[in-house]
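Why show two proteins at once? Because comparison is the fastest way to build intuition. When a single record is shown, students tend to memorize it. When two are placed side by side, the eye starts asking what differs. So, the first record is below.
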Amino acid sequence: MNVGTIAKVAIRELPGLHTIDLRVAPGSPAQTAVADALGIDLPAKPGQVRGRSISGGDESLVFCLGPDWWLIVGHKGAEQKLAPLLLQSQYHFSVVDVSGQRTAIELEGPEVREVLAHLWDQDLREKSFPVESVSQGLMAKAPVIVCHIAPDRYRVMVRSSFALHLWKALVDAAEEWM
């Protein structure tokens, strides 16, 4: 970066995000019980995201990845809250800790869409991919989940085995704005 310039894109890794995979039939009593136990609102449609602040200033996000599939990120203690429900025979759902599967990379700044556009084929304009949207696809040939968290802020979750490859591709794409 040249002296005196301001970075227009920041890229950072978010290490150690607690992540669980939740599968439950939509609209079922189990879904209602899970949402109540976690104290979160599960988004109704694939591609939607819900977020909230939790204790200690941490942020919890819920990605709806399919009609009966949610990824809950940053909600420590979720399994403990759901354990009593798993013991009740009237509730059928699956919850799996997948924290080690993915690495989270967050990009932020006024030029973030331009950086992502170098590697992502999907339309990132606000009308097509507004805040609280999530999508899956390929970025630099790596399978990813992309979430639009806030204006000019995106989170890319990538399988850990592809993390270094994607990091290098993102840094290369952002070079002119850093």
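Second record. Ask yourself what differs from the first in the token line.
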Amino acid sequence: MRHFLLSTVALAALAGQAFAADLPSRKEAPVYVAPPPIFSWTGFYGGLDIGGSWGNANLWVPGYPYTFSHNSTNNGVIGGGFVGYNYQINNFVIGVQGEFDGTGNGNSRYTSGPLGQFGDVYQSKFSQDWIASIDGRLGYAMDRTLFYALGGVAWDQQSADLYNLSTGYSISRSNTRTGYDVGGGFEYAFTNNWTGRLEYRYYNFGNSNNAFFDGNLSGGYYRTTLTDNVFRVGLAYKFGAPEPVVAKY
């Protein structure tokens, strides 16, 4: 009888363990951790930049009895703003950008006879008032870092002044020129909306003939040749950042 009771208790214990194993687990589900968001460069943006410009300017005035040539550096501070749009395809980014910058570029030079028949003293001044451009951009993105090249059409306003310091006579003219620009740089996104950039740009506005309308002093026109090398930093805000891409389970 005792053996029968012990066998019954043992069977009941085994049955209870088997039943408990079939019950749902009461352990809490693991906490879901979303993967980090994937940054996208797609979107409109706008920003400000500032930097330095180093270049060369030549002012050439043909006349009688002396042809005046002023060749000098064209250096100064440059700064302004830009707007644009990027579209990202995998790691490649294409876009278009427009910008406008004021410049402090310019130089001045003194020359004494034989420019005038009586050995007069002359001062020539050349300045570049502003630079604007519309450029295409092509870049390669590594998450939040973008390396890019750009190039397009550029415009600037140039001013030239020629003074006869001996007689007080002067001529001043300004005009807008069209040229081209090429360059490159890299940009980093600190947040989904704010980015910073470092950039180099080369501008070339070629040769231009400009009327002085004064045959007595200048033979009727002057010619300028102008190039610029610009290094600048910029800060931009990207509008409407897309929603982060996360995996779904």
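One difference worth noting in the second protein: The first strand starts at residue 43 and ends at 61.
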